[in-house]
Each structure stands twice: as structure tokens, then as C-alpha cells.
Structure of Bis(5'-nucleosyl)-tetraphosphatase [asymmetrical]:
Amino acid sequence: MAVRACGLIIFRRLQPAPSSKVADSIEYLLLQTSYGSHHWTPPKGHVDPGEDDLQTAFRETQEEAGLQASQLTLIEGYKKELHYPVHGKPKTVVYWLAEMKDCNTEIKLSEEHQAFQWLKLEDACKFAEYEDMQAMLKEVHQFLCSRE
């Protein structure tokens, strides 16, 4: 059976300069794992028994980044499933999109991560080594920009 995990793509909007585009004020939160290849990823984790997918995404975000559900706004209309093998077994990761209510809220990492970055799309794609993650970040960005 496929391993199932869920997470949130978290973004914040900085105060844009009057001349800049909305797209330029969006930054994405990526966390660097403290294990393995130290890859960068949005907060995510395995579904616990009795939990639904969205509960898992919020719980993992709280555990890994110290962010409460009340500090985030879930963005309607975006949900993405990624499928890839991990150690030869299929894995499904479901992501939702959430905006920080206060862009200055402190991030508090768990032991699972050693660093975090708020990154504009181009840099987020450089940090996220996997093609499907890069494609998802670009898709999210387009989704957000099309809503303006």
C-alpha cells in the first residue's frame, strides 16, 4: 500500500512597493530536513490513524514549523497530489495552500528540520530539487496571481 502524507504550501505576502507586481510580493516557506540529503520541502508528514488528510496537514505544520491553524488562511480551490517512490515504495503526498495571516509570525522548527527560508518563486524552485515540487510551486504561483 502507498505511504500517504499531507502538508501545506504556506505563503506570505510582503508589502509590495507601489511599482511592483503582486507576484513579486509572494514568498513561500520551505523547511530543510535535518536528515538524509537535507532536502527542502513544505511542512508535511504521515497521516495518523483516525486523522483525515487536512487534519494531518495542519498537525504537521504545527509540529514542524510551529504554526497554528488559526495563524493561517486555507485558500479554497487548490489541492494537489504528488506521487513518487520512496525507498522503492509508492508515496502519495497531498498539499493544500495556506496564507500566513501575519507575515511576521515566527517559525519554530522541530528537530526534523535544521533551517527554513521564505523564498520568492524562482529561489523556491532552486531550493526544491524535485521537478514535481518545482512544477507544483509554479502552478501555485500562477493560481495565486490569477486570483488577483
Summary: Helices lie at 53-65, 121-127, 131-146.
